[in-house]
Amino acid sequence: MGVMSYQFKSKKEVIGINFSITSREYYESKRSDIRIDIAVKVQGIVYDSSKYVDIGSVIYKIERTYQAGQFIELYLKRTSIKLGDIIDYTE
């Protein structure tokens, strides 16, 4: 067995608003077998179709996005990726 390593193409810091998912969104994620751990809104102009985010040294995968006016809602699932597994990653 080998050790997995990852390399991110780019990194930028953005400010987002953490918000709770609704009960409808929770049940929809259960029905589709996608667990959503956290939801964040960012301004649409700063979102670059990234697949992963680092929040508090925890790597999340962006499972779904929704346009909400000038914001993009990101629905995130916690991954098992550790910061040390990412090549040349600095906080």
Written description of the protein model:
With 91 residues, this protein is mainly β. The protein has one domain. The chain has one helix at 23-31, and strands spanning 17-19, 38-43, 52-55, 58-68, 71-78. It has a five-stranded antiparallel beta sheet with strand order 1-2-5-4-3, with no helix packed on it. The protein is globular and about 40 Å long. 9% of the residues are buried.
Structurally, the number of domains stands at 1
Helix amount: under 10%
Query: What would the principal axes of the Cα set say about the shape?
Result: globular
Please count the beta strands (DSSP E, at least 2 residues each): 5
Report the uncertain regions. Answer: none
- The ordered H/E elements are EHEEEE
Largest sheet: 5 strands, antiparallel
Enumerate the strands of the largest sheet in spatial order, edge to edge or round the barrel. 1-2-5-4-3
Which class of secondary structure composition applies to the elements? mainly beta
What is the count of DSSP helices, taking H or I runs of 4+ residues? 1
- Distance linking N and C termini: 28 Å
Rg result: 14 Å
Mean pLDDT: 87
What fraction of the residues are assigned to beta strands by DSSP?
A: 35-45%
